[in-house]
């Protein structure tokens, strides 16, 4: 226990019940394991312990960690700890569903559960439910649900039958009266209210009778006459039907048509009647809603029995069934007492994601003698769509404070100080101001690690991408993130290795790409595939998207139907037979009835036909896995895969797919035909099957934010960071606390009051959960968080809210137009094949030289002719995506560049802070401060010679030289001195030498200098250097006229080149280092 912080120690040793509010990265698993060790030290027997985790992986991790701690304690007291270690397998450490399964199996009579039913994964169970749903509905007769349209009935029952325990709790909140009884009760309430106000009604009637309408065509006159008729009727129902059904407008009537204040009296009477009786009136939509719910409740009871009968028939069960049967058992007092006596200690991990339905089970395990330890973080409650309720941990914390301990673990061992401070600030803003029971308080974290690996790098990058179409924005965001990852790898960005406790260069496996919704995933993946960045999708349809698994599905489709031409063509082109496209085309060109018939008639394909016929014969008796393995064996498919790139990954995915087929086999899909159909249903239902990830795979991880929970990565990229949840209006709303509400398919009808209230409540909860989802995403990052912000009009409000929250934190903002993000497609050079150095033989050039060039183009050519080619010969506008080290002030890339603003300020002689601020209205304050700092640097001692000189500024020239015209602007010059101001982060005088040499030559001024404002350095070129600069121009022109455009790539120049993304010769740092090593050690 020596490695515990004071708060962790308090959580571990708390004498009674304890709720541990464990912040992100605060070591909750370590604390939970130490808590168990502490309890065992106090004499707790392993069999008296029940620990509930959110996932099976968490259960395995907790168990293995406790066992490791126990082994380390053996030397202290071998007899005692040896016995504890031997007995520890008896400890109940599992997920809630494993616990429910145990309760149901140990009490089959009380739970009404079968002993040997197979529990299906969520997607597989939904697939089974869909397949039997038509059979379930056969138990219903149309007259039993006359008020429920079939589409609404079907959707409601699908939802309810998928989660019987939540359905029981929700339907329990529904009014139990029959529609007739409810109507009588409502009528009685309305009649009582009507009679209660009889005096007031009659008084208003007398007042109305004193008024007269002089023009019977007045629009208010029908209302007046109706009021005279209904104010003294005895039957309140008659009043309600006539009054609330009449057309009425507050602006109706003309005062001159009425005697006295008749118009006002009519409107006042209508307002009073509405205010007094509106709440008690009988609305048709409310009557329909109650009838529909009553019928739904009856239909659910009938279909639930049928659903369970089919479950027994097919020997299947879902996770929700386990909860249902466990609750059935726990409603019996003797079952509660049995487990309360057995388990003296209950530990619950990730309690913030517990649903009210699950809590009804866990709560019954507690007695006054039971000690409980609950670990959770309300800020990370993100499973509302599965029924979890953040209010549970809030309520339990409040209860435990009265007779126990609530401990906040606020030290993050994951993230460095600067990034923790960003998270604290952002969510302090985002969490505040929500007056709702589901809102949470932002308890700030503290960082155990102070230093960040890259001291000059910001902690959070915000990449804002503007554009019109959402699809283009997503595509641009994907390309941008590819370029950013390439730059991180190329620049050997430093990250902290927690295991080795050292800083090291980032690897692909250190980077996680998180996303909220899967709808745009293919767009993002397309960019990564195009760029060749290794990546793996760990949530979504990852396995079925892999090419080797698509091969297997294609094999099965052919085996199920040999006359499926597309499947057979794909099979022939696969690694099984490796036919080329021309060979397949030869077969299809002369195709007869089908491709299978043509293949059998082709002498050259005799071996292929023999193999396929043998496999087809096996499909009658063999299982889908056996048939596949036979095809693999006869075609040596695994051997072929082993020779391909990512061989280990491919082979593991094929094995994982076989496991899927085995699961289907256990569900009754025992032949190729049934398995193929089941796979199709899985794809249509969106069943998530993650691909197999080799432990050694160095690849970027793609996963949903929910999948990332509990994980950490040195670098996290959050796509579409401003994701806004949709304003859903589902036909069926179900809540275990608030009941069930329905929306009629006819949109012309008013929505029932119950639906409006439940919808509003669920929308507010959803909005708050979206903020918590972002919190989970932000806190996955250990060293660098990169936010992608494709900005649409819909997202402007959350954008400004996020910018407000980030204000004053360690972040940088980069802004782009979507169409400026470079393409990832390589652009072939103008001259292919032999080196362009062989050109110049007098033949025509593959390009036309322009009549004029910018003087800055000389430096570009000398650094890399390929970059010159792209920019000045082909007009390809690259974008210089530089993510440089931070300056002393935050650098915000928005609007004009800082260099351009500095030149403007110097040209206009705006040297004071006030002048710069007044003239650059709208620029970010950080930019204003940076411009002022650079302009003010001219007062440095290094620039004393420049003071008080009569400079001519910003003069444009067209300079003819050696048959070419060069265009340029001279920053400042006198009769004897040329000055060029630079705001570059790096000093590279040689790059600018030709430019100044040309100015010097044209103006006949012998002295030229570069003024490096960031470095307080004045670099002056002498006559010899200026002459050399002209020689560089001569060399460039000679090379151009001979067609020489060979690239000169290097890691440094390629990193800062605006064409790095589409240049086929661009190199990374590793390649450059290898080349340098080869030159050094040939």
TrEMBL record:
This is DNA 3'-5' helicase. One of its GO terms (cellular component) is cytosol. GO terms for biological process: recombinational repair. The lineage of its organism: Bacteria, Thermotogati, Deinococcota, Deinococci, Deinococcales. It comes from Deinococcus cellulosilyticus (strain DSM 18568 / NBRC 106333 / KACC 11606 / 5516J-15). The keyword Nucleotide-binding applies. It is an enzyme of class 5 (isomerase). Residues 1-416 form the UvrD-like helicase ATP-binding domain. SUPFAM superfamilies: P-loop containing nucleoside triphosphate hydrolases.
């Amino acid at each position: 226990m020596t490695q515990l912080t004071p708060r962790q120690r308090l959580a571990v040793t708390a004498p009674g019940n304890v709720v541990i509010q464990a912040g992100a990265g605060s070591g909750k698993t370590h604390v939970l394991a130490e808590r168990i060790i502490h309890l065992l030290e106090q004499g707790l027997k392993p069999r008296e312990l029940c620990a509930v985790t959110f996932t099976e992986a968490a259960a395995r991790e907790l168990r293995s960690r406790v066992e490791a701690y126990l082994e380390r304690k053996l030397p202290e007291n071998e007899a005692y700890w040896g016995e504890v270690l031997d007995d520890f397998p008896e400890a109940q450490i599992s997920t809630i569903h494993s616990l429910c399964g145990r309760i149901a199996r140990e009490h089959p009579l009380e739970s009404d559960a079968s002993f040997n039913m197979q529990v299906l994964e969520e997607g597989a169970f939904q697939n089974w439910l869909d397949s039997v749903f038509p059979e379930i509905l056969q138990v219903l007769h149309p007259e039993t649900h006359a008020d429920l349209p079939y589409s609404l009935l079907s959707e409601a029952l699908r939802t309810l039958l998928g989660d019987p325990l939540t359905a029981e709790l929700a339907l329990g909140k529904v009014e139990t009266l029959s529609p007739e009884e409810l109507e009588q009760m409502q009528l009685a309430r309305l009649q009582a209210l009507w009679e209660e106000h009889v005096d007031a009604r009659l008084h208003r009637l007398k007042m109305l009778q004193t008024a007269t309408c002089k023009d019977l065509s007045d629009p208010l006159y029908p209302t007046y006459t109706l009021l005279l008729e209904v104010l003294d009727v005895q039957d309140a129902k008659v009043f309600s039907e006539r009054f609330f059904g009449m057309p009425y407008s507050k602006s109706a009537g003309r005062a001159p048509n009425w005697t006295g204040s008749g118009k006002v009296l009519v409107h006042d009477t209508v307002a009073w009647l509405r205010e007094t009786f509106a709440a008690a009136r009988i609305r048709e939509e409310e009557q329909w809603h109650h009838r529909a719910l009553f019928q739904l409740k009856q239909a659910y009871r009938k279909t639930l029995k049928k659903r369970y009968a089919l479950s027994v028939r097919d020997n299947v069960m879902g996770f929700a069934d386990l909860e249902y049967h466990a609750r059935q058992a726990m409603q019996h007092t003797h079952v509660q007492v049995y487990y309360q006596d057995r388990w003296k200690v209950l530990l619950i991990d990730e309690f913030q994601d517990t649903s009210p339905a699950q809590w009804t089970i866990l709560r019954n395990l507690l007695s006054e003698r039971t000690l409980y330890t609950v670990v959770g973080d309300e800020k990370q409650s993100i499973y509302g769509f599965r029924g979890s309720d953040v209010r549970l941990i809030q309520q339990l914390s409040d209860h435990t404070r009265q007779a126990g301990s609530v401990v906040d673990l606020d030290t993050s061992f994951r993230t460095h100080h600067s990034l923790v401070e960003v998270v604290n600030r952002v969510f302090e803003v985002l969490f505040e101001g929500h007056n709702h029971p589901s809102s949470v308080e932002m308890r700030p974290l503290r960082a155990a690690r102070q230093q960040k690996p890259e001291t000059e790098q910001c902690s959070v990058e915000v990449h804002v991408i503007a554009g019109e179409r959402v699809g283009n924005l997503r595509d641009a965001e994907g390309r941008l993130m590819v370029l950013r990852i390439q730059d991180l790898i190329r620049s050997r960005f430093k990250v902290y290795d927690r295991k080795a406790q050292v800083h090291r260069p980032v690897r692909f496996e250190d980077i996680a790409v998180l996303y909220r919704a899967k709808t745009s995933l293919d767009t993002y993946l397309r960019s990564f595939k195009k760029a060749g960045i290794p990546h793996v999708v760990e949530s979504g349809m990852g396995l079925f998207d892999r090419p080797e698994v698509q091969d297997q599905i294609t094999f099965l489709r052919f085996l199920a139907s040999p006359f499926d031409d597309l499947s057979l063509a794909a099979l022939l082109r696969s690694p099984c037979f490796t036919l080329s496209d021309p060979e397949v085309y030869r077969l299809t060109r002369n195709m007869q009835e089908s491709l299978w018939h043509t293949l059998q008639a082709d002498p050259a394909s005799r071996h292929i036909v023999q193999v396929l016929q043998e496999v087809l014969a096996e499909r009658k008796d063999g299982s889908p896995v056996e048939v596949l393995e036979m095809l693999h064996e006869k075609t040596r498919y695994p051997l072929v895969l082993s020779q391909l790139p990512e061989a280990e990954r491919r082979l593991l995915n094929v094995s994982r797919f076989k496991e899927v087929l085995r699961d289907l086999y256990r569900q009754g899909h025992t032949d190729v035909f049934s398995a193929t159909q089941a796979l199709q249903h899985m794809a249509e239902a969106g069943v998530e099957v993650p691909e197999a990830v080799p432990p050694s795979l160095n690849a970027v991880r793609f996963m949903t934010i929910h999948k990332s929970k509990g994980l950490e990565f040195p670098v996290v990229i959050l796509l579409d960071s401003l994701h806004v949840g949709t304003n859903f209006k589902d036909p069926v709303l179900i809540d275990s606390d608030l009941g069930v509400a329905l929306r009629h398919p006819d949109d012309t009808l008013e929505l029932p009051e119950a639906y409006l209230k439940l919808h509003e409540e669920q929308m507010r909860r959803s909005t708050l959960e979206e903020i918590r989802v972002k919190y989970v995403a932000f806190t996955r990052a250990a060293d660098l968080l990169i936010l992608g912000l494709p900005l649409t009009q819909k997202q402007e409000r959350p954008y400004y809210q996020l910018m407000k929250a980030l204000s004053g934190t360690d972040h940088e903002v980069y802004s782009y137009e979507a169409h400026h993000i470079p393409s990832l497609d390589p652009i072939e050079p103008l001259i292919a094949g032999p080196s362009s150095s062989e050109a110049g033989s007098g033949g025509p050039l593959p390009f036309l030289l322009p009549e004029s060039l910018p003087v800055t183009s000389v430096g570009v050519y000398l650094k890399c002719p390929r970059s010159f080619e792209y920019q000045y010969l082909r007009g390809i506008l690259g974008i210089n995506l530089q993510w440089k080290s931070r300056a002393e002030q935050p650098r915000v890339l928005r609007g004009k560049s800082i260099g351009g603003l500095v030149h403007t300020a110097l040209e206009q002689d705006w040297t004071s802070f006030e002048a710069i601020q007044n003239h650059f209205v709208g620029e970010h304050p950080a930019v204003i401060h940076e411009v002022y700092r650079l302009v003010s640097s001219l007062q440095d001692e290094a620039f004393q010679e420049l003071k008080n000189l009569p400079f001519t500024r910003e003069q444009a020239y067209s300079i003819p030289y050696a048959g070419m015209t060069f265009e340029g602007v001279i920053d400042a010059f006198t009769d004897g001195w040329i000055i060029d101001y630079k705001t570059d982060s790096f000093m590279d005088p040689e790059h600018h030498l030709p430019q100044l040499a040309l100015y010097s030559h044209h103006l006949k001024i012998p002295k030229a200098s570069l003024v490096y404002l960031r470095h307080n350095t004045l670099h002056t070129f002498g006559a010899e250097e200026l002459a050399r600069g002209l020689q560089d121009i001569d060399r460039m022109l000679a090379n151009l006229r001979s067609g020489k455009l060979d690239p000169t790539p290097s890691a440094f120049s390629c990193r800062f080149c605006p064409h790095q993304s589409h240049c086929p010769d661009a190199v990374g740092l590793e390649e450059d280092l290898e080349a340098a090593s080869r030159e050094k050690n040939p």
